[in-house]
Amino acid sequence: MDSETPRSVVLLGSTGSIGTQALDVIARNRFEVAALAAGGGRVDLLARQAAEFGVAAVAVADPRAVPELKRALAARGADPVVLAGPEGVAEVAAWPCDIVLNGITGALGLTSTLAALEAGRVLALANKESLIIGGPLVKRLAKPGQLLPVDSEHSALAQCLWASGPSGTDLRVVRRLVVTASGGPFRGRTRAELEGVTPEMALNHPTWSMGPVITINSATLVNKGLEVIEAHLLFDIPFDRIEVVVHPQSMIHSMVEFVDGSTVAQASPPDMRLPIALALGHPDRLPEVSAPVDWTRAHTWTFEPLDDRAFPSVALARYVGEQGGTAPAVYNAANEVCVDAFQKGALPFLGIVDTVARVVGEHIPGQAESLEEVLGADEWARARARELTA
Ligand SMILES: NC(=O)c1ccc[n+]([C@@H]2O[C@H](COP(=O)([O-])OP(=O)(O)OC[C@H]3O[C@@H](n4cnc5c(N)ncnc54)[C@H](OP(=O)(O)O)[C@@H]3O)[C@@H](O)[C@H]2O)c1
């Protein structure tokens, strides 16, 4: 990173967990923020961010938030271009800058991912859903080096892969990717013991503080299933060479096993600012992003296999990942509907993955080569999941 010229960043989902942590990294390093986008649910925070970072444009997905946003901006003496609706968010995604960070949650992030890639921007991707549902479409658009992972596991895998050879990543010497999982708040429970789980219990993650959807996805382990598909798409490793191992302390963020029998792991305390900083500063490491592991203290880090009976979501994700085409979009869309129903008390915890499995079972996968094909499958899965959870 050229230390003289600030790198300009467009931040999508700036008011969320990833977005606010990204702004923390940005404020302490040589970056400037070109534009921001959010849903429109936290207008005051968005206006404060826009004023503090002096951005040129702000977009909100919900046009009804615009009058309040304009008032909040004016009150802070800020006068950026204000854009509205999904088109406004996509316009910000393609805004001139050095790097776009997509921290939008869910399938809604796909249009922004495509807009950023089409505009030729380097894309730091926290919004894993857009890669997973738009697999072939996103991969066709992304040029080598254009897509940088922000998910801690994939950031770890990328770092471990740097150890594959002195002249860069050499997949021929990779035996398997080992994706770690904290196991979520219900690790060790049997399926029967998951019956009475409430949204409050599922929102209480033991090691990570994140937005509500990914937190519930971590409790069902759907998030780990999505991450297995994400690893396959990012690193071109077949599903039977991607392992999941439960590591409750969340200190090892993933590992790569090489053909010679050695394994390289990436370790750091669970702090998303590290993978965010690594993507924003790529290829450089930024100074003092987070406190490192304290090696003067005793630590016990444990690893255990995943219980596929209590948590069938990872095996189901492998199945849809192998099917390819529209199958991952259906898995994700059905899950988003079910998570919403669970949060509203309309679906029991175990009903989330059971319903996703039913919708996936009914789906005949088609091609996912165009946005229409992906969105068509996404809409079908949402409608079917709504019927099943009504
Ligand atoms: N949080 C983590 O530690 C973490 C770790 C790894 C990966 N991720 C991934 O990062 C993404 C974001 O997660 P999160 O935990 O940061 O979620 P979050 O806290 O719920 O934040 C979501 C952000 O997206 C905005 N948003 C919602 N709908 C939008 C739309 N249609 N257009 C533009 N912006 C919209 C929200 O705005 P409002 O505030 O206006 O609603 C908010 O700024 C997810 O894909 C997640 O899987 C997160």
From TrEMBL:
Residues 9-135 form the 1-deoxy-D-xylulose 5-phosphate reductoisomerase N-terminal domain. It catalyses: 2-C-methyl-D-erythritol 4-phosphate + NADP(+) = 1-deoxy-D-xylulose 5-phosphate + NADPH + H(+). Its EC number is 1.1.1.267. SUPFAM superfamilies: 1-deoxy-D-xylulose-5-phosphate reductoisomerase, C-terminal domain (SSF69055), Glyceraldehyde-3-phosphate dehydrogenase-like, C-terminal domain (SSF55347), NAD(P)-binding Rossmann-fold domains (SSF51735). Pathway: Isoprenoid biosynthesis; isopentenyl diphosphate biosynthesis via DXP pathway; isopentenyl diphosphate from 1-deoxy-D-xylulose 5-phosphate: step 1/6. Keywords: Isomerase, Isoprene biosynthesis, Magnesium, Manganese, Metal-binding, NADP, Oxidoreductase. Residues 268-383 form the DXP reductoisomerase C-terminal domain. InterPro entries: DXP_reductoisomerase, DXP_reductoisomerase_C, DXP_reductoisomerase_N, DXPR_C, DXPR_C_sf, NAD(P)-bd_dom_sf. GO terms for biological process: isopentenyl diphosphate biosynthetic process, methylerythritol 4-phosphate pathway involved in terpenoid biosynthetic process. Residues 147-235 form the 1-deoxy-D-xylulose 5-phosphate reductoisomerase C-terminal domain. The keyword Isomerase applies. Belongs to the DXR family. This is 1-deoxy-D-xylulose 5-phosphate reductoisomerase. It comes from Acrocarpospora macrocephala. The gene is dxr.
